[in-house]
Amino acid sequence: MPQLNPNPWFWIMILSWLTFSMLIQPKLLMFTLTNQPTNKTTPTTKTSPWTWPWT
């Protein structure tokens, strides 16, 4: 079965991984965020128990 022969597919995988890690990844990491993340405090809400009509 030709799928089991790793000879051509291994080099394609290595070449694509190297392309991603050497060319594409540094370009993506150069982007800066427009809005810097900030710590947000979540408002606490007061919950009331449900009153069941049959109790």
Automatic annotation (TrEMBL):
Any GO CC annotation of this UniProt entry: proton-transporting ATP synthase complex
Domain of life: Eukaryota
Primary residence: mitochondrion
InterPro entries reported in the protein's UniProt record: ATP8_metazoa, ATPase_protein_8
Listed GO MF terms: proton transmembrane transporter activity
Localization of this protein: Mitochondrion membrane
Membrane topology: Single-pass membrane protein
BP terms from Gene Ontology: proton motive force-driven ATP synthesis
The keyword Ribosomal protein belongs to this UniProt entry's keyword annotation: no
Mitochondrion in keyword set: yes
Keywords assigned by UniProt, alphabetized: ATP synthesis, CF(0), Hydrogen ion transport, Ion transport, Membrane, Mitochondrion, Transmembrane, Transmembrane helix, Transport
Transmembrane segments: 6-24
UniProt record similarity statement: Belongs to the ATPase protein 8 family.
Protein name, entry field: ATP synthase complex subunit 8
